[in-house]
């Protein structure tokens, strides 16, 4: 593992932005920012909590989510 990589713990989900927020409601753009996403094809490893799952569901058409390994 490289020095700049963080270990991925159990209970993590990898969220990748696959859609553009252009032309979307401001709340959807804010949700992407809340997930730590702001550019296409960027990924974040987030803790798998009910609040994160709700955010993913709100912008499911703009992101893909998978269990982080």
From TrEMBL:
Q: Does the keyword Ribosomal protein apply?
A: yes
Spell out the InterPro entries in the cross-references: Ribo_uL30_ferredoxin-like_sf (IPR036919), Ribosomal_uL30_bac-type (IPR005996), Ribosomal_uL30_ferredoxin-like (IPR016082)
Which Pfam families does the protein's record reference?
A: Ribosomal_L30 (PF00327)
One GO cellular component this record assigns the protein to is: cytosolic large ribosomal subunit
Which Gene3D superfamilies does UniProt cross-reference here? Ribosomal protein L30, ferredoxin-like fold domain
Q: Which CDD domains match?
A: Ribosomal_L30
Which intervals hold domain Large ribosomal subunit protein uL30-like ferredoxin-like fold? 13-63
MF terms in GO: structural constituent of ribosome
UniProt KW keywords = Ribonucleoprotein, Ribosomal protein
Q: Which family does it belong to?
A: Belongs to the universal ribosomal protein uL30 family.
Q: How does it assemble?
A: Part of the 50S ribosomal subunit.
NCBIfam families linked to this entry: rpmD_bact
User: What protein does this entry describe?
Assistant: Large ribosomal subunit protein uL30
The organism is: Roseospira visakhapatnamensis
């Amino acid at each position: 593992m490289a020095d700049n990589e963080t270990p991925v713990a159990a209970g993590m989900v990898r969220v990748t932005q696959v859609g553009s927020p252009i032309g979307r409601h401001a709340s959807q753009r804010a949700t992407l920012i809340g997930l730590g996403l702001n550019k296409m094809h960027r990924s974040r490893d987030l803790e798998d909590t009910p609040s994160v799952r709700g955010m993913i569901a709100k912008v499911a058409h703009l992101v893909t989510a998978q269990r982080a390994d």
